[in-house]
Amino acid sequence: MRETAERKRIDSPGGIFWENIIALASTHLLGLGGIAYCVLVRCSVWTWLLAAIWMTLCMLSVSAGYHRLFAHRTYRCAQIVRIFYLLFGAASGQASILRWAADHRVHHAHTDDEKDPYNVTKGFWWAHVGWLLFRGPPVDFRTVRDLQADPWIRVQDRFYLPIAVGVGMLLPTLIAWTWGDAVGGLLIAGCLRLMVQYQITFSVNSVAHSIGKRAYSTAVSARDSWLTALITMGEGYHNYHHRFPGDYRNGFRWYHFDPSKWWVWILSKVGLAWGLKRVPAEMVRKACEAVLREKAPAEA
Question: What is the pTM of this model?
C-alpha cells in the first residue's frame, strides 16, 4: 500500500522535481546566510565546534551507516548504533534509509548505464546534482525488502521529515541557545553544515567517478583518489569499493584515509559491531593483476 502511494506521488520521469529544487536552494541560501551572520555578527567559537561535531556525526551516519551497514550489509552492529545512524542519517537531509539504499543498490547494479540514477556518463554535473533536480522512475522498494523488515527503519522512513528537521536543525539550535547563539546554531551548525555536507556527498557521485586511478576494475567509471578521499571523508577509494562492495573498508590499506573504516573497527573492539567483512588480500592482488594484463596490450 505504501509503495502504491509512493508511485502515485512521483510524476513521470523527466519532470522537474520542484520540491528538491526548493529544498536545495533554501539550504544553500541559508548556509550562505550563515557565513554572512558570522562576518556581520561574529559567531561563537562554540557554535563552530558544534557545527564540526554535527558534520562528523552526520557524515559517519551516512558513510558507515546508510552506505556500508544498510546498503551493503558489510557488518552488523548493536541497536543503539543503528538508532544513532537513523537519527543523524536523517539529519543529513538525504532521504530515508529505504530510499537512499534503494537508489544506491540500483547504482551498483547498473553503474554507468541508463538505469543508474546518478550516471556520470550523462555528464559531471548530472552526477553531482542534476539527477536530483528531475524526477526519475518510481523507487523500487523490492530491492530493500531486507531493510523493510526492520521496524526501526520503517519508522524512520515514515517520520523522516520531522526527524531530519528535529535532529538536523532544531537540536543544534537549542544546544547553541545555551550559550546565547541560537541563530548561529541554526545557520551554522544546521544550514551551513548541511550545505557543505551536500557538496561533499555529491562529490562521491561526480568527482569519485571522474578523477583518479582504476586499479581494481576498468569495467566502471569509479576511481580511487587520496584527494577525493580527503574531500569525502574516506569515500574516495571508489574503484576499490565498486569492485568489492561487500568490504566494510573503502581504503583497504591501513594508511588509507577512511574515517568510517576506523570508526567501524573501533566499534568492533568495544563489542558494538561484529561480522566485519573483508576481501582477502589474494583476491585484491588478482584484481590488480587482471587490470594490469588488460592495460598491457594497449601500452605495448
Answer: 0.91
